[in-house]
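Here is one chain, start to finish.
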Amino acid sequence: MRIEIWSDILCPFCYIGKRHLEAALKDFSGKDSVEIQWRSFQLDPEQETRPGMDVFSYLAERKGISKAQSEAMHTQVTQMAARAGLEYHFEKAVVANSFDAHRLLQYAKTLGLGDAMKERLFRAYFCEGGNIADANALADLAKDAGLDRAAALAVLQDKRFSAEVEADIREAQTLGITGVPFFVIDRKYAVSGAQPVEVFLRALQGAGG
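Its structure:
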């Protein structure tokens, strides 16, 4: 069974959805035959990296809402993440474009380390305040995920794997995917969003049957 997951590293629901899927897989009898394939998606391809701006102000500016409203929205997401066992720290988050992080993920996939890389990127952004647009910071994360740091840095510096990122984004458009996370199971079943664990389990069982 192959599960393709379109997601963006900057999407808080994508990390929560990852945890919900993992919980469902623990109760799925066919879990040992499941292959997870992470696919690239950018919620805002034009987003500028702005280390001096907090995410509360960024969302307020982007959505045309007050900073207080933005903070309230982030608090709700933080509470949702906590229920999934994640400790979000949006006050540390660095506003950044995710394209280079996606290139790194595509490289990690070629080494069989896609899931480890995705997890490390999520944790860096949502929990640790890592700048996922900074090449040296990304190379450090790559090392944490089991990749060779120098090789990862070389990939980041010469723009390799850009075509793979763009191909995933085009395929998402072809499939009509407009939001993430989006989970496709054996190209037969789809789950959109960070659904409850039981929804993922039913989809797994349906596809497995």
